[in-house]
Design goal:
mainly alpha, about 55 residues, 3 helices
């Protein structure tokens, strides 16, 4: 597998951003707002507390 080239990355960023944004927006809008799992408990504390303050 070869490394990505600047032209390929540029094309994705400039030409496909709108399409990818719509795909992500659609996926996010379909998420269930009721959290039925304990996934949030697995999250680690942020290393950016000095920048953003405490999160809890």
């Amino acid at each position: 597998m070869k490394d990505w080239e600047h032209q390929e990355l540029s094309q994705i960023f400039y030409e496909d951003a709108d399409k990818i944004g719509h795909i992500l927006g659609d996926a996010i809008s379909r998420l269930d707002t009721e959290q039925a799992c304990e996934c949030a408990e697995l999250r680690k504390r942020t290393l950016l507390e000095a920048v953003y303050g405490t999160t809890s």
